[in-house]
Specification:
131 residues; alpha+beta; Endonuclease, Chain A; 5 helices; 4 strands; 46% helix; 19% strand
Length: 131
C-alpha cells in the first residue's frame, strides 16, 4: 500500500528520532536478520508509521511506552490496530519496559510470531495479543 507523501516524510524524520527502546530493538532485530526475516524501521503504511515491519510475515511491531496506557491513547491504538489489520497486517505491541528488562526474550517472541505468520501453510490471525 502506498503511503501519503506526508507520512513518508514523517517516517524519515522518525528514523532520525528513534527512542532508546526503539534503537535497542532495531539493533537486536537487524543484528541477525532473524531467521531469514527482514524488518524495516519506521515503515509508512497508509496514514500511519509502523515502528517495525516484517513484510514477509505481514507483522507490525510497536514499542509502547507508558503513555500508551494513558488518556485516549488506548482507544487510538486500538483504532490504528484495526485499520492496520484491515490491510492484512497483524500488530504486536511490546512494552518498552518489558523490552528493557528482557530484550532477548522479546526478540525471540517477535521472531517466533513472525516465523509462524510467514509460513505459507499456516492460517494467519488478524491480530497478535500484546506481550
Amino acid at each position: 500500500m502506498e503511503a501519503p507523501r506526508r507520512t513518508v516524510a514523517n517516517a524519515q524524520r522518525l528514523r532520525k528520532e528513534m527512542t532508546p527502546p526503539e534503537v535497542a530493538l532495531w539493533d537486536a532485530l537487524r543484528r541477525g536478520a532473524q531467521a531469514g526475516l527482514r524488518f524495516r524501521r519506521q515503515h509508512p503504511l497508509g496514514p500511519f508509521v509502523l515502528d517495525f515491519y516484517c513484510a514477509r510475515a505481514k507483522l507490525a511491531v510497536e514499542v509502547d511506552s507508558e503513555i500508551h496506557g494513558m488518556g485516549d491513547h488506548p482507544r487510538r491504538d486500538a483504532r490504528r490496530d484495526r485499520w492496520v489489520a484491515e490491510q492484512g497486517v497483524a500488530t504486536m505491541r511490546v512494552g518498552a519496559v518489558d523490552e528493557r528488562d528482557n530484550l532477548d526474550g522479546v526478540v525471540r517472541t517477535i521472531v517466533e510470531v513472525a516465523r509462524e505468520r510467514a509460513e505459507p501453510t499456516r492460517r494467519r490471525a488478524p491480530f497478535v495479543p500484546p506481550l
